[in-house]
Specification:
Layout lengths: L5 H14 L6 E8 L11 E5 L10 E5 L1 H9 L4 E3 H4 L4 H13 L2 E4 L10 H5 L4 E3 L6 H8 L2 E5 L5 E8 L4 H18 L7 E8 L5 E2 L2
Parallel strand pairs: 3-4, 3-5, 5-6
Antiparallel strand pairs: 1-8, 1-9, 2-7, 9-10
Helix pairs in contact: 1-7
């Protein structure tokens, strides 16, 4: 049995869609947890694959070598070479900060640390996804558009994108449901650790779900 009221969730989604004019607006779930000591408790880190894309335009860039560049070009996926970001001078650091700020995710190879530091992406909370050579890059790219990462950092407030207006109420509902049900499994005491859950769009005020 879900900890949230499904009827209220669906009616809240309908209310958001009714007052949001832009079809590309993202629907977001805001989560607040309780009962965690950030200095002592183990910090969770988990991913869930949603049934549907979480944004209309997921901005994902590939950073890699020549072989990965060819794969990215084949599928028309934005690409940046390792050589472009390698180095620690002022201009290179500005570039890496810009990449982290302007993208929702980065696909790269496991040897990325030879060329750039993960700290630039952690600060902007831009997740890294690792590509396994020999697998289909397009499939990896499409799965990222449906992947939500939950990582407890330095505060007890989290959020995740759960769809966009044009996706429609039923698919948004399915995404929210999948995200919330998975999130509970990461918590040390399950539902007891949830303080509140809100839903909102870019243009709307938050609606309390729990």
């Amino acid at each position: 049995m879900s900890f949230y009221n499904k009827e209220k969730l669906l009616s809240s989604i309908q209310a958001l869609l009714a007052e949001t004019e832009k079809k590309e607006d993202t629907i977001e779930i805001q989560l607040s947890i309780k009962g965690y000591d950030l200095k002592r408790d183990v910090r969770f880190d988990g991913n869930v694959l949603l049934p549907h894309p979480k944004r209309l335009k997921e901005k994902v860039v590939v950073i890699g070598d020549k072989a990965l560049e060819e794969e990215a070009a084949k599928h028309e996926i934005p690409f940046i070479s390792f050589e472009t970001v390698a180095g620690k001078n002022v201009e290179k650091n500005k570039l890496k900060k810009k990449i982290a700020k302007s993208n929702h995710g980065v696909i790269t190879l496991t040897n990325f640390n030879r060329f750039f530091e993960i700290s630039f992406f952690n600060r902007k909370r831009t997740p890294l996804y690792f590509y396994k050579p020999g697998t289909d890059l397009k499939t990896c790219y499409e799965e990222i558009s449906r992947t939500c990462k939950f990582k407890l950092r330095n505060n007890t407030v989290l959020s995740f994108a759960a769809g966009y207006v044009e996706l429609g109420e039923e698919k948004i509902f399915q995404n929210v449901q999948a995200g919330l049900d998975f999130f509970v499994t990461l918590l040390k005491k399950g539902v007891s650790n949830i303080a509140s859950v809100n839903i909102k769009s870019n243009q709307s005020k938050a609606i309390k779900l729990y």
